[in-house]
Amino acid sequence: xxxxxxxxxxxxxxxxxxxxxxxxxxxxxxxxxxxxxxxxxxxxxxxxxxxxxxxxxxxxxxxxxxxxxxx
Length: 71
Prior knowledge:
Structural class: mainly alpha
């Protein structure tokens, strides 16, 4: 798991430096296969979906609480 986290951090740093970088280029820079990069993208995408879904739920709850407290 830690290796996976380190790899995802490396990928994010590379993308932050070059928004047009390809999967193959990322793989070459990090020293892993393109398929491994794609798996990391999949994990990052799942994480971001979960993160933003939770953030939206939290915002909805906050709005409801504010509405109730203003009544």
